[in-house]
Amino acid sequence: MGWDALSCNYNGTEVSVSISKSLDDLLAEVTCFLQKVQFSCLSADSTNDFSNYKEISVNYSFPWHFMQMILLKVPKVVMELLVGGDDSLGSQIGSRILVIEGSSVYSPVESIKCLKLGLKDYVRKHQTRFSVGENLKVGTGVANSSGSSQGNSQVVEAVVIISEMSELVPSSCIREQDMKTEVLYFEDFVSCSIAQSSLDALTNINWKSYGLALRSIANHDGSVMLEWENLLPDFHIHIAIHCYHRQVKQWVAENSLPDRNLVRKAVKCALDDLKENNQGVLLSRRALKMCDYAPDLAKTLAQLILSSNDLNFQEECCSLLGVQSQEVNMDNVGNCIREKIISVIGLNDRNSQKNKEAPTFLFEDDCFQKEHFMEEEYHEGEEAYNFLDL
Amino acid sequence: MGELSRSTIFFSDQHLCYADILSPSQVRARIEVAVLNFLKALSSNSPSISDLSLISRNSSNSRVSRGLLTGDSWIFLSHSFCTRSLTKENSAKSFIRVWKVMEICYQVLVQEKRVTQRELYYKLLCDSPDYFTSQLQVNRTIQDLVALLRCSRYSLGIMASSRGAIAGRLLLQEPDKEVVDCSTCGSSGYAISGDLELLGKLTMGTDARYIIMVEKHAVFQRLAEDRVFNQIPCILITAKGFPDIATRFLLHRMCKMFPNLLVLGLVDWNPAGLAILCTFKFGSIGMGLEAYRYACNIKWLGLRKDDINQLIPKECLVPLKPRDLQIAKSLMSSEILQDSYKEEVAAMVQSGRRAEIEALYCHGYDYLVKFLATKIVQANYL
User: What is the pLDDT of residues A248-290, one digit of tens each?
Assistant: First the structure.
């Protein structure tokens, strides 16, 4: 039938398909196709009877930006379906108007939620066979400007999704494009080439604080591709950015270039949101190194606790850890300590940008400690010699 | 007298940081508090991974205590701290090392045993090869733990191996054991145990007038073999190089028990030899939380620059090594070193040469005894 071919040719401005079926069959298959792209046809207005057409061709415009509007989950979209065919009387053209709605659940909608849903759907559709079901981690961010004198404030929304592939994926199946992220970019509800200011914003984000190393950022005809270094093979990042104005008063006169700082802030908020809600994700390199030590430290502490012949001490430790007395064993205690350490590492990593808290010390009750604290630079392997230190 | 000076208002005890000598149960309790505090911080509403705050063991945190009524001076550590933190890349591993040594010490104490530093090294090497690669690293981590928990190394259940030896006019008796006459122990002398508790229980008796600390084992053996203590009423003691805590402990104990004995040091003429003498005399920074207790008023008998000029042929002098120069620099910058010692160091550096005690043998194998006797009679010591 050719629907698969149709969906692959989805990135043009027009798509056409020729079939020889009855109109009813045609409508059924078009409906099915539209459902595949998450339309629900609520009504169709039929003005022509095409039942006598022997050969029916359907031409309809399905612009790329229209698909993006699906991604943006724009509440209401109307599509005109033109049906043309040849019969014994010659060429005939009829039309039907289809009213397509986004999910009615989000009406009235917050556009950031729409963008989030839309990107999730998009990611699901583009998952490989190795992708792990619903294992999508999502972060959203919104940044507003204070508005111009006309009261028209600029809004930038960003959604970042991390999807993971199955652990069983063979390395030969990892495609080069898995190491890259295409940034889906919209302005005022329309897909367009990325503005230079937005591109600069992406370049200036401190990706390292999220454990990411940006190798290159390429702009090919408005399509932005971020290439990463050392991305884990089971890890894929998806980004969508939408810049728009709250009110369009003077469409032509308004300088609608997105503010670089707003774009940067929105993307950063989305990354922070993702990190905040998903333990162990987007940890900085420093935090990842600390996590490497967590199992050894946890095992050491667990062994110390369980080697004690003081049951009160053991009970108090387990109570602090939330380990029930009947579950006390090396694995449970060790795992619990390890999880807490990793959780704290992640929390501190998320907070490290916001504020630097004073460190906590093991023994806090020494008053001299605070008065005379001098932090000594410790160098691994230092052989500083002092004659009275033989 | 020493006790009186410590209790005067002139003694800077408010700055003194020290390691307690504790019973095994007390140390276990401190370790348990450490673990509970760590878990509390980890599980609190504002969870955190606690840093380890250790007394700094470097010269900037060292102070000098000078006895007013005695000539005794010693080094001690004050209240400056350094940190071992999991959150800092350059100290994360040392942070883990402290916990690992703490774990083993706790288990040793629970089992009411003692281990040597060497035994600890092999245990850690096998259990945690990623963290421990050398004996020095293990020893330093042990000192970190001492500085964290503020209890002595011995209290943690760790003994140094037996290192030092003693010979001469001394009678020793361990509890419930036979009396040992150290003048009949042969050239090797009586081995000084690494067990401080055992050393503290020794009963001692002597008719000596001098204690001679000898830097090197070979010279100690020569003097013991020649029975120098029959000609000069003395006790010979050696740490065979680096002054370990046990030897310092025993020497200090003898000084307290026999306060009329003059303590003299016989070391090579080089910065390292003087540094060894100074460690007996003032204590050390590396073990500064404990070592200040075991300082004793030892005088520098030889070799000194006058001996070199008068007695040592030039052929017997060898060039100083780079390490000697490093030590010399450290000695010269030390606050505690008296001027006469600094003049000696300056002479060493200026000559660029050093000499071993054995160089005196060019005058005959029995010359060393004559040398010692002459210097003692002349009171030629600093």
Answer: 444 444 455 678 889 999 999 999 999 888 877 888 888 999 9
pLDDT score at A255: 53
CB-CB contact of A156 with A186 (8 Å): no
Min mean pLDDT across A236-250, A296-310, B180-194 is at A236-250
Query: Does the pLDDT of residue A45 top 80, yes or no?
Result: no
The whole-angstrom separation of Cα B313 and Cα B249 is: 37
The answer to whether the Cβ–Cβ distance between A307 and B107 falls below 8 Å is yes
Q: Are the C-beta atoms of residues B327 and B273 closer than 8 Å to each other?
A: no
Please state, as a whole number, how many other Cβ atoms lie within 10 Å of the Cβ of residue A260: 19
B281, with CB counted inside 10 A (0-12, 13-18, 19+), is buried
Chain A positions touching B103 (Cβ under 8 A) are 300-301, 303-304, 307
Closest-CA residue of B relative to A339 is B42
Residue B95 φ then ψ, to 5°: -60, -50
**DSSP code of B7?**
H
The single residue listed with the structure tokens 């281990």 is: B115
- In whole angstroms, what separates CA B71 from the centre of its chain? 19
Check if the beta carbon of residue B72 is closer than 8 Å to that of residue B96: no
How far is C-alpha B155 from the chain's CA centre? 17
Distance in angstroms (rounded) separating the CA atoms of residues A388 and B283: 7
* Cα–Cα nearest to B366, from B178, B227, B244, B170: B227
Q: Is A214 helix (H, G, I), strand (E, B) or coil?
A: strand
Q: Can you tell me the distance from the alpha carbon of A65 to that of A200, in angstroms, rounded to the nearest whole number?
A: 24
Pairing outcome for strands B262-266 and B298-302: parallel
| Residue of B323, B326, B324, B242 whose CA lies nearest to B276 | B242
Q: Judge: A289–B92 Cβ closer than 8 Å, yes or no.
A: yes
The span from the first CA to the last CA of chain B, in angstroms, equals 21
pTM: predicted TM-score of the whole model, two decimal places: 0.75
Burial of B180 (0-12, 13-18, 19+ CB in 10 A): middle
CA-based radius of gyration for chain B: 22
Q: Give the residue with greater pLDDT, A295 vs A219.
A: A295
Q: How confident is the model at residue A193, as a pLDDT?
A: 84
CA distance A113 to A102: 12
CA of B98 vs chain A CAs: smallest distance (Å): 10
What span, in angstroms and rounded, lies between the C-alpha atoms of B148 and B53?
6
pLDDT digits (tens, 9 = 90+) for B92-126: 999 999 999 999 999 999 999 999 999 999 999 99
H or E segment and range at residue A153: none
Put simply, the answer to whether B51 touches A361 (Cβ < 8 Å) is yes
Catalytic residues of B: 122
Q: Which of A348, A352, A311, A353 is nearest to A328 (CA)?
A: A311
Q: How many CB atoms lie within 10 A of CB A366?
A: 16
Helix (H, G, I), strand (E, B) or coil at B220: helix
| SS3 state at B353 | strand
pLDDT at A138: 93
Chain centroid, CA A245 distance in Å: 23
Q: Would you call the peptide bond into A362 cis, given omega within 30 degrees of 0 as the criterion?
A: no
d(CA A202, CA A333): 43
DSSP H or E stretch at residue B30: helix B24-43
Neighbours of A367 (CB within 10 A): 8
Better pLDDT: B271 or A223: B271
First to last CA, chain A: 87
Contact A386 B286 (CB under 8 A): yes
pLDDT-derived band at A1 (thresholds 50, 70, 90) equals very low
- Nearest Cα neighbor of A155 from A254, A73, A250, A263 is A263
Q: What φ, ψ does residue A81 adopt, rounded to 5°?
A: -105, 115
Residue B177 is encoded by which pair of tokens? 């054991």
